[in-house]
Amino acid sequence: MPNETAIKIESSSRGVILSVLAQAGARRNAILGVRQGMLRVAVTAAPEKGKANRAIVDLLSEALDVPKSAIELVSGESSPQKRILILNADAERIRQSLQQ
Q1: Distance between CA 55 and CA 90 in Å, rounded?
Q2: Which of 45, 77, 88, 94 has its CA 20 to 30 A from that of 21?
Q3: Nearest to residue 59, comparing CAs of 93, 17, 20?
């Protein structure tokens, strides 16, 4: 049985890719944990005109201590399930940052 609390982090030639499960329109911005290998995040922004996606980038930038310019949405622009690239990142450092 796979570990439900393990974050799936894929290595890429450009950095690492996180699978994210997003909840827009939440009460607060927060990282909620892990579900089925996906990082669960909640943002107060509405899921319209990219507002929630920008809020997710802001949240991840702060949590991972990386510049916003180093975070790219790879897929899932209008879906709660997203893949997000962290440019020039080390998978182990990202994993440690998320566990804190």
Answers
A1: 23
A2: 88
A3: 20
Distance CA 98, CA 100 (A): 5
Amino acid present at 29? N
Strands, E assignment, the chain:
9-12, 15-23, 30-35, 38-42, 71-75, 81-87
pLDDT digits (tens, 9 = 90+) for 91-100: 999 988 888 7
Phi and psi (nearest 5°) for 32? -95, -10
pTM tops 0.85, yes or no? yes
Of the candidates 98, 79, 85, 75, the one whose C-alpha atom is nearest the C-alpha of residue 10 is 85
The residue among 79, 72, 42 whose CA lies nearest residue 59 is: 42
Q: Which amino acid is at 85?
A: L
